[in-house]
Amino acid sequence: MAWNCDTDGLLPVSKAKEIILGAINVVKEIEEVSLDDALNRVLAVDVSSPINVPAYDNSAMDGYALRHEDLTNTSQFQLVGKSFAGNAFSHRIEPGECVRIMTGAELPKGADTVIMQENAEVEGDSVSFTVAVDKGEAVRPKGDDIREGASVLQSGKKLSPIDIGLLASLGCDKVEVYRKIKVAVFSTGDELLSVGEAARSDRIFDTNRPMLKAMLTSLGAEVIDLGIIPDDRALIQQTFERADQEADCVITSGGVSVGEADYTKEVLDEYGDIDFWKLAIKPGKPLAFGRLKKSVFFGLPGNPVSSAVTFDQIATPALKCMAGQLPSSGIQLQAEANSVFRKRPGRADYQRATFFTNDEGLLCVQSAGSQSSGVLSCFSNSNCYALIEQERGRVEIGENLTILPFSSLIQSSD
Ligand SMILES: Nc1nc2c(c(=O)[nH]1)N[C@H]1C(S)=C(S)[C@@H](COP(=O)(O)OP(=O)(O)OC[C@H]3O[C@@H](n4cnc5c(N)ncnc54)[C@H](O)[C@@H]3O)O[C@H]1N2
Ligand code: MOO
Fold first, then answer.
1. Which of 92, 117, 140 is the last residue in one of the domains?
2. What pathway is this protein said to act in by its record (predicted)?
């Protein structure tokens, strides 16, 4: 499994993903949660519908229900009653009769068509219609949306608000989901301060841990926050042992490159079976991955942009798979470069950028500015990656580029 970067060059991103996906296990434990607690949980069973939706033929409009064939014989219908949602007209309608009907109300027996009230003229009990309609007009037939027994949602689906609505329409008040994956996170580095501590001119705030915790929460994971661990061998070892005991996955940031003042590598060499890779990705070249005694481990690079991009592009697909989610591929679009994108061949570059439609309706993309892996502000102002492939060099204005719109993990879209 080891990939020796020194002799074989940089490890391609696709190869790294393949190795990682081959090394992880999907959680097995299933739990039942109420529909109110099901948002963003991963469905552990296939769901088929216990009922027809809608449960009965009903009207899509406020209007008049009638037999379509009668429209060829008469222009005057006799109004014989009313059908309200939840309070239906109980008799069969006979030839030449119509029933006043409200949106959602059950269609009277015998009726097959509804004409909206805007197209009706009413005089006492006599109704005539001003337009011709097709049979079945404004009728929502029983089972039109979902037939009883039909497959509705597949195991592995992360439940969205729409899925919650769909399950509610079936009357499901509980769903079986995989338990949340537990992910332990900590940062290493003597230069780090926790947010809330007083700023110091010789320290930086721990940016990665709150950012990674937020991304993990968006993913639906249970986060175990182990804080900032100083550069102390015994403390780092203890923290790895605890994290490994408590979590399915352990994520750290920093200390995976070639720096000296760091014990992470030493501890990991003893405690786990970890490979230190040099990935063909920018930002985020140094990355560690492997197994601890019980859990899997991702050592993300310390620079905040590198940490976020490697989490998003490398760790996220693996964590989704671990959580039982079906594989999904994000949207890729082609856009025209509206600015120069500087790049040297050698690594796939996930540059932060903004896409937009120009006055001619053409999809364009503009660099978000600094591509330094310490500059989060440009990341925050962007809405996509401009993905410049491994072997490609500088991209000139007017050339085509692949863009990857950010997922909700990176950016809120509204
Ligand atoms: N001689 C070389 N130097 C470096 C290489 C290399 O190949 N040869 N790789 C560079 C690349 S690429 C990256 S990325 C960084 C990654 O280094 P580490 O993962 O070992 O991270 P650190 O050295 O600990 O920190 C890098 C940088 O990030 C800051 N940092 C660390 N943790 C946090 C945090 N939690 N919140 C905010 N900022 C953090 C740290 O202060 C450093 O500025 O190495 C390059 N060097
Ligand atoms: O990951 Mo480093 O430059 O690619 O920040």
1. 140
2. Cofactor biosynthesis; molybdopterin biosynthesis
